[in-house]
Amino acid sequence: MIGRLASAFGKLELILSNLSLVALVTILAMQVFFRYVLHTGLTWSEEISRFVFIWFVYISASLAARRGSHIRITLFIRWFPGGEKYALLLADTIWIVFNAFVVAAGIMLISRTLKYPIYSTALFLPLAFIYSVIPIAHTLMILRIIERQWMCFRHGVSVIAGETTAEETRP
Predict the structure, then answer these.
(1) Best label site of 5, 9, 27, 137, fewest CB within 10 Å?
(2) Is 151 helix (H, G, I), strand (E, B) or coil?
(3) How far apart are CA 11 and CA 8, in angstroms?
(4) How many Cβ atoms sit within 10 Å of the Cβ of residue 79?
(5) Residues 125-169: tens digit of each pLDDT
């Protein structure tokens, strides 16, 4: 059940990430076409492309956490007392705590922008909607980090994408 739910969220993240990338490229191509071919600009394209880019980055960060392909410095993990599995667990715990702070700050930001509405310049969209990606993506990252650690301890899957654990290399 939990595996199916995680898989469904993974597909949703991938779909949202791909759709936002396609939308970003399409909007920017339209802006270039209108500006240089039709000699007029689209008033909304810069704002929408910025918002789509923000959503793309945050959702893709969650997707990277799921796949274990987030940037890590792994030079010193082999020297960590207890082995690299525990070094990565400590690093992921710190990452989870950081994400929890960002989720709390994001929720406070959204509640403030709902109480005192702020709107985008060109389209007058409520920025609370745009900022909502912050706590959503960081909550997803927390879940993905926990999921990846669970797969490491339960099934021996490496926390880092493309690397194998000692259990995976045994004959």
Answers:
(1) 5
(2) helix
(3) 5
(4) 9
(5) 999 999 999 999 999 999 988 888 887 777 776 666 665 444 444
* 140 close to 13: Cβ distance less than 8 angstroms: yes
Q: How far is CA 138 from the centre of its chain?
A: 7
Closest CA to 5 of 156, 147, 161, 157: 147
pTM: 0.82
d(CA 8, CA 31): 34
Number of domains in the chain: 1
Facing residues of 126 across strands?
119
Show the CA angle centred on residue 91, arms to residues 78 and 16, nearest 5°: 120
Residue-range definition of the domain harbouring residue 90: 2-169
Max Cα distance, the chain (Å): 66
Specify which residues 39 forms β-bridges with. Answer: none
